[in-house]
Amino acid sequence: MQEEIIIAGFGGQGVMSMGQLIAYAGMLEGKGVSWLPSYGPEQRGGTANCAVVVSDEPVGSPLVTKPSTAIVLNNPSFDKFEPRVRSGGLLILNSSLVVRTSERKDIQTIEISATDLANDLGNSRVANMILLGAFLERTKIVSEEAILESLKKVLSAEKHHLIEINEQALKKGASLVEVKIS
Question: Mind listing the pLDDT tens digit for each residue in 64-106?
Fold first, then answer.
């Protein structure tokens, strides 16, 4: 089993954090992982993406050119990465910000209004975690427990109060997968 993931959006949307959490969780579960960030001209507000590979075997290269999954949080990322998803792959969209939909019939698309749902939870910054919850529910690549353990390691001690809302966001995203698959 190997999952090759591209996560893309604007800087500040938690793109890098999502990738780091998946990679760290994979490490905690004894899997081979890689994480390769790519920033646009600015970290906050510019484009950002990362490639994550999670495998039952050691990972030979961190490069992902034909992802099995793309998680896109904005329109420019949709335009760039939707065509690259391999046939049979998965595309997860933040439909609060991505106004286009995929016309491809050879991939599965999950559209979730993550920003709107995050606002409903009381913190717009957990939109990424809603999408991550949907991804985890669909792929089972790493466990929610490993993601939550990773949050404890990745977040500084003074931000541990955010773990609860992040867990709520993960669960919200997971609960939407069956309903939102198109």
Answer: 999 999 999 999 999 999 999 999 999 999 999 999 999 999 9
CA-CA distance, 180 to 110, in Å (whole number)?
A: 6
pTM: 0.93
- Whether 110 and 91 have beta carbons less than 8 Å apart is answered as yes
Give per-residue pLDDT as tens, 7-45: 999 988 999 999 999 999 999 999 999 999 997 665 555
